[in-house]
Amino acid sequence: MLDGHYNEWLNLLVRWFHITAGIAWIGASFYFNWLENNLVRTGKQKEGISGYLWAIHGGGIYRLEKYKSAPEKMPETLHWFKWEAYTTWLTGIALLFVQYYMNANLYLIDPQVMALEAWQAVAIGILVIVATWVIYHYLCDLLANNPQVLVAVGFVLMSLAAYGLTQVFSGRGAFIHIGAMIGTMMVGNVAHVIMPSQRALIAAVEKGEEVDPKYGAKALLRSRHNNYLTLPILFIMISNHYPSTFSDAHNWAILLGLVVISMAIRHHFNIQHKPEKSAWILPVGVVALLGLAFITKPAAYVAPVTANAAVEQTADAVLELEQKVNVIVQERCASCHAAKPTSEMFTAAPLGILLETQAQIDASSERIFQRSVVLKTMPLANITQMTDEERDLVGQWHATKQN
């Protein structure tokens, strides 16, 4: 494990690079799908042109045209869209190593799920990512003429992967590996199918040969897959910040629900130029998201009623409970959440949250309660060994704040 300061900076720089590349890749994908759906294909077209579009942006007016196949002669300068994808994947894998593999005992392994050595968890993660591409690539070729069957089989396999990984890794570790699997499929589509198909197209034009339509068909299929997977992978990229999704007992089902809903919403935007077919999808998707948030709300916390836990609501009793919780926070939380953390993992308090004084603890009472009692995602990997009894005391203390 790197020194906490350097680990944080390495994480920051790789994550920044990853997000920047991802915006470029997904932004280009969104733009070209929008362009394809908004081309004017009616009326008289120039010879060899299948559609055109007028646009204004940044003070300039543009006219874009799409060829039915390709121009008679290729231009000297042709812009390719591939490095956005490659860079996103490379930085994503780098971030996986920096955040999860170099800190496997904190972020990837949950002993309450499965007791693993760090090297075992890393090996499983890498194996799953590689196997995903091999299986997906094979199925795409096998079921190329049966796209509905391919989608059904793919969903079943993703469901099995989501459930299986949540039985092996921590919730956040399982989610990020599903994201890495999807990202690998997407970049594999670019590198092994879409780019070779485009090279074949250019080679045929330069040689004056007829273009084999199979190349375009394969590239189109994989491009559509990438298009529908963009919103799911964006959710997974940010899921690490939302423990109410990955820490739930049914986290795998929540993930699948969000994948399906986001793909449906993506479908709406793909066909929004056909309002008679798309008008209902977006509102249904929004309702489904709200419904998912509602049904996954944790049950209200009820502190166990025992001789020690039944605290009378007197000023002295509340003060005594507050003092006990202060001790718990100092022992279990303040090693990280301090102006100068004593934990080797951090050189600054995570998220800037300080828990060194009673005033700071009171100000973060709701966050402390949610993360340590309801979701039980803090302390991180329970590295300071907070007990269930201590969590119950925090729950009782939080209840006094609500009265």
Please tell me about this protein's structure.
The protein is mainly alpha-helical and 403 residues long. Strand 1 and strand 2 form a beta hairpin. The chain has two domains: 226 residues, no CATH class; 88 residues, no CATH class. About 1% of the residues have low confidence. Helix 1 packs antiparallel against helix 2 and helix 2 packs antiparallel against helix 6. The chain has a two-stranded antiparallel ribbon. The protein has 15 helices and two strands.
Write the layout of secondary structure elements.
Layout: H1 4-38, E1 49-57, E2 60-67, H2 83-101, H3 104-107, H4 118-142, H5 147-166, H6 171-207, H7 213-239, H8 243-246, H9 251-270, H10 275-278, H11 281-295, H12 315-332, H13 358-363, H14 365-374, H15 388-402
Antiparallel strand pairs: 1-2
Helix pairs in contact: 1-2, 2-6, 4-6, 5-6, 5-9, 6-7, 7-9, 9-11, 12-15, 14-15
How many discrete domains?
Answer: 2
- Indicate the proportion of strand residues: under 5%
Q: What is the strand arrangement across the widest sheet?
A: 1-2
- Our Rg estimate from Cα atoms comes to 26 Å
Low-confidence stretches: 307-311
- The backbone outline, from C-alpha atoms, is elongated
Largest β sheet strand count, sense and barrel closure:
2 strands, antiparallel
N-to-C order of helices and strands: HEEHHHHHHHHHHHHHH
Roughly what percent helix?
A: 55-70%
Kindly state the mean pLDDT as a whole number? Answer: 90
Number of helices: 15
Please, what is the oligomeric state? single chain
User: How many beta-strand elements?
Assistant: 2
Helical/strand content category = mainly alpha
User: How far apart are the termini?
Assistant: 44 Å
